[in-house]
Amino acid sequence: MNRVPIPPATTVEKSHLTKLAERAAMLAEAGNTDGVQQTEREIDEIVYRLFDLTPDEIAHIEKSLVNTVREESDNEHMGDDE
Predict the structure, then answer these.
(1) Minimal CA–CA distance to 50: which of 17, 3, 2, 1?
(2) Which residue intervals of the chain are DSSP H helices?
(3) How far is residue 15 from each of residues 25, 27, 53, measured CA to CA in Å?
(4) What mean pLDDT is reported for the chain?
């Protein structure tokens, strides 16, 4: 597997990402899935900007993520019958 270069982030960006991650964790612990999704979206937008992704690249990533979430949900429900 090739290494993916991690783009440099400013101290402000790192701090903002840290705060968003902490917020997402607190919201998840509280069961606030809408809040978690909104916070994750903010994190995604910062990461997309840091990697200087094009709209096409972002669309490809988001499509892949939707498929991954759908697969995880399907796998969780498969165990419900047992």
Answers:
(1) 17
(2) 11-29, 33-50, 55-78
(3) 15, 18, 21
(4) 87
List, for residues 60-77, the tens digit of each pLDDT value.
999 998 877 666 656 665
Beta carbons within 8 Å of 40's beta carbon, 6+ residues apart: 24
Domain limits of the chain? 9-51, 54-82
- d(CA 37, CA 33) in angstroms, rounded, equals 6
pLDDT confidence of residue 71 = 60
Q: Structure tokens of 17? A: 């990402």
Q: Are 41 and 60 in contact (CB under 8 A)?
A: no
Coil, strand, or helix at residue 39? helix
